[in-house]
Amino acid sequence: MPIKIAAPSVQSLFLEMRFSGQKVATGTGFLADSKIGTVLITNRHNVSGRHPQTGKCLSATGSVPDEVVIMHNQKGLLGNWKPVLEPLVNENDMPLWHEHPILKEKGDFVALPLTQTEGIECYKYSLENNGPDIMVGPSDYVSVVGFPFGMNAGGALAIWATGFLASELDIDQWGMPIVLIDCRARPGQSGSAVIAYRSSGMVPMRGGGAAAFPGPVTKLIGIYSGRVNPESDLGIVWKTSALKELVDSIS
Fold first, then answer.
1. Count of the separate structural domains present in the chain
2. Among 2, 24, 72, 169, which is most buried by a count of CB atoms within 10 Å?
3. Quick check: 156 and 22 in contact, CB under 8 A?
4. Could you read off the pLDDT of 79-119 as tens digits, one per residue?
5. pLDDT at 101
6. Dist. CA 112–CA 115, nearest whole Å
7. Cα 54 to chain center, whole Å?
8. Residue 207 maps to which CATH number?
9. Is residue 139 classed as helix, strand or coil in its secondary structure?
């Protein structure tokens, strides 16, 4: 019997942030389309190496990353991976990533244009159409698909940590395009895709009623950014709508 792999397991990509070739931290990202080509979506604190609120250096060594190794899916060989090195800064130490046009550094998410795509398979998330309009409300389950503590589920397959939506999806938390989840996520999952995944069957729809799906359906909720504080399992998710605004601003 052929092995079946859920698409989100390969859409989330393992990241290793480096400074001068030395590992600084690990994280997660995923791919999307932009007007200038494929971009990596991940957290700003992953690529900047600094706390999103305080600006404090996250590494105990005081190093901030200048490059990232992305563990891409190998082209035409599902279940095989290819590490690709991408620079994070140019020769003048200026960032190569793009920030949200209004939120700037206040938004803990960025888009890094890929410069090396030969030999890789790009399983992208669509920010234009983030999935069927299924009902996702408070207490409905969602998954954070990434790499806690740099761990994987075999090869470079992502691990699914599942929790619950903890706030109203249509309401912006703290006046920002943020929704909260209640999930036991951990370091390394920063930058993970947060999704509502339903395997098949009858699924409640946002407009009322239910629809039958013969196979899996996935709705991208946004990108995981970390816990509200170290004592809580409440996590911050920047909404897909904000990610789309960022990507649409790239030219």
1. 2
2. 72
3. no
4. 999 999 999 999 999 999 999 999 999 999 999 999 999 99
5. 97
6. 9
7. 22
8. 2.40.10
9. coil
